[in-house]
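not sure who needs this but someone in the group chat was asking about Ubiquitin-like domain-containing protein from Rhizophagus clarus so here u go. i didnt clean anything up, its just raw.
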Amino acid sequence: MTDENITLNCLIVPIGELVNIPCIKVMQAISIRKNGSYIDLQTAIRSRLGAPFNNIILKKICIIQAGGIEKEMDGYEDTISDYFSEEPKAEHFHITVYPRSE
């Protein structure tokens, strides 16, 4: 990993279209550029899910910060570095992902 990248622990919430996701796919470690966008993060997560889940539209990505504060990432303006200025602790989940609701 370089200084331009960050690794985030991701929890995929297995509801809706993701209800049948294999247990080994629910927790992911995603490496992404710090200046990456919502779309970059969504693309990285979807690529790790594999077929048939990699075509599912993700409803929202929530950023979990210290103290359990959860914020929804803006899909058009925010970058990863807006939420994480340094490498977060490896033992925590950093983002929670929900599928689009029907």
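also The longest helix spans residues 38-49. if thats useful
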